[in-house]
Amino acid sequence: MDKKDWQERGAGHRQRLRDKFLDQGIEAFSDSEIIELLLTFGTPRRDCKEPARAALEELGSLPAVLDAPYERLRRIRGIGPKNIFALHFIQGVARRYLKQRIKGRNYISSSREVADYLIHSMRGLSREIFTVLYLDAAHGIIDTEVLSEGTLTVNTVYPREVVKAALDRNAAALVIAHNHPSGNLRPSSQDEQLTRTLYLICSFMHIRLLDHLIIGQGDQVYSFADRGLMDSIRDECQKLTSSLV
């Protein structure tokens, strides 16, 4: 097969993938086919089947491929800078889409969409990040913001910055979230102390802290509220404030 025949065969394969998506949607695709088609956005005249398979075998899953840093992807044979740009660009588009989709939604009724956004934005990171969701009085989502990066403690997440940001947005309630790169969902003593401190300071400003979410690996999410920890923290803070009166 000469070069022209090979290129025409590759072009036909890529067109079949596009037609398959248009006719049947993303559910008809394997993870390998999804990665392959994304890689072709970077090198449209090149066969990307083998690099896609190699990436999936090396990294283990579609999310891991999309979350992988530049240098890790660059080590996979057949994947170059233009392919990596395509992967990271679609990852960025998905993140923005999920973030904008939850704005204005009621937090309680849209908890799954919120979890999807947080999982997508925090999963696979090598460092901890601290995100705040600002809610109005009806628990509609006003905005989301990353306020801190690095190991989270009361000393690195400044409660006054959280409260100031909430007041700037006229927020009546908050949900805080951070990730555990290790994948261990169990909250640390620092996590619990941070939640107590924020709950107490927010209560003085008539802002409700509704939940603290921990994002692990995959689709794992730990909710302080679901585990009853927010009720315990509320009771502790109420006892403390009543003793000060």
TrEMBL record:
One of its GO terms (molecular function) is metal ion binding. Residues 107-230 form the MPN domain. It holds the Pfam family UPF0758_N. It comes from the Bacteria. The keyword Metal-binding applies. Coiled coil: none annotated. The keyword Aminoacyl-tRNA synthetase does not apply. GO terms for biological process: proteolysis. Keywords: Hydrolase, Metal-binding, Metalloprotease, Protease, Zinc. NCBIfam families: PRK00024.1 (NF000642), radc (TIGR00608). Belongs to the UPF0758 family. This is UPF0758 protein. It comes from Desulfolithobacter dissulfuricans.
